[in-house]
Design a protein that fits this description.
The protein is mainly alpha-helical and about 350 residues long. The chain has 2 domains: about 110 residues, no CATH class; about 220 residues, MetI-like (MetI-like fold, Orthogonal Bundle), CATH 1.10.3720.10. It is built from 18 helices and no strands. The longest helix is centred in the first third of the chain and has 33 residues. It is flat and about 75 Å long.
Length: about 350
């Protein structure tokens, strides 16, 4: 073993020792601040004992892995690297999915159990959270009407965003016209503009139009007709650059006009990117809180995001199983849509990154 390997081995042993025995070590008071708090150093070691254990274990495993890896054959090296790769992926996957699993588990727990344990299996299962989730607030709205209100504007917004972004990308990606570069630069500049700086002028404009608290959710639907999501336009332009222009010329020879070329030739090839844009917009619109908060005033028109906030009653205390149940019900359509269109989504995200 090299000197560096020995150094890391000693470091891992020290960290493991701190993790196992650091909490019981009595440290001398070296400064006036520590003298005012007897045992502060020992408490510090005890507080971070799990971190020391984890870090020491990772370093020790890494040292042993590379030491053994150099002394075995190629077949064993491949097996070791594959095993470690899958172990890392499984650990990261569990780490990423655990909060969602915990939320599902919390819907079957009471408040005391939610804040006393991290176990996924409830000790005292209860359906009280789901019963409270179905409660009407003020007699005007429940979770199902809130879900219906959500998709009254989410679905049109997704459809109009995909159509307008595709047409805009077609114009910038396939045609040369006066002022094109300046307009494209202006379009890209809006990509870096925070939405928060637009909230006040947009609210004042939409209020003058009479769109605030519109039963048709005009303030949230109409802007999607004008390709306001610059990110989708840029993504579709990048994807369109990979489509040979010879296809446009062949379509023109066959008698197609500009729109027929777009619909019959380019859209089938742009379909994965369009699905990706639609999925992004679907998830962003479904989770949008600020938009409905600004432009929807009537409780009977509240979407699911505002209904989740209404389920938190600050006067009587939060029933967290109800909050978790309402949140789970509200995100289920997004999860279902994402998994159903997962393959198209991955194709659309990755295809535009490769220059054909």
């Amino acid at each position: 073993m090299s000197k560096i390997g020995i150094m890391f081995l000693v470091l891992s042993i020290v960290l493991l020792g701190l993790g196992f025995y650091g909490g019981s070590v009595q440290m001398p008071e070296a400064t006036a601040a520590e003298a005012a708090q007897p045992g502060a150093a020992a408490m510090h070691l005890a507080q971070y004992s799990n971190f020391y254990l984890l870090l020491g274990g990772v370093i020790l495993f890494t040292v042993l892995y590379f030491t053994i890896h150099k002394r075995v054959g190629l077949k064993t090296q491949h097996l070791m690297s594959t095993t470690v790769r899958y172990i890392i992926l499984i650990v990261v996957g569990v780490f990423m999915v655990y909060p969602l699993l915990w939320m599902v588990s919390a819907t079957f727990k009471d408040n005391n159990e939610i804040f006393s344990t991290l176990n996924l299996i409830p000790a005292r299962p209860t359906m009280e959270g789901y019963k409270l989730a179905m409660t009407n607030y003020g007699g005007d709205i429940n979770i199902w009407s809130a879900m219906l209100n959500t998709y009254k504007y989410v679905i049109p917004r997704v459809i109009f965003t995909v159509i307008s972004s595709t047409i805009t990308a077609y114009g910038f990606g396939r045609f040369r016209f006066r002022g094109r570069n300046a307009l494209f630069a202006l379009l890209m500049a809006t990509l870096f503009l925070p939405q928060v700086v637009l909230n006040i002028p947009q609210f004042l404009m939409y209020r003058n139009f009479g769109w605030v608290d519109s039963p048709l959710y005009l303030a949230m639907i109409v802007p999607s007709l004008f390709a306001q999501e610059t990110y989708f336009v840029y993504m579709l332009i990048q994807f369109m650059r990979n489509i040979p222009r010879e296809l446009d010329e062949a379509a023109k020879i066959d008698g197609c006009n500009i729109m027929q070329t777009l619909v019959l030739v380019l859209v089938p090839m742009l379909w994965p990117a369009m699905v990706s844009a639609g999925l992004f917009q679907f998830m962003w619109s479904s989770n949008d809180f600020m938009g409905p908060l600004l432009y929807v005033n009537s409780p009977s028109r509240y979407p699911a995001t505002l209904f989740v906030r209404m389920s938190m009653d600050a006067d009587t205390g939060f029933a967290w199983n109800r909050v978790m149940a309402v949140s789970l019900i509200s995100i289920m359509p997004s999860l279902i849509v994402f998994f159903l269109a997962q393959s198209q989504f991955m194709d659309g995200v990755t295809a535009g990154a490769v220059k054909g």
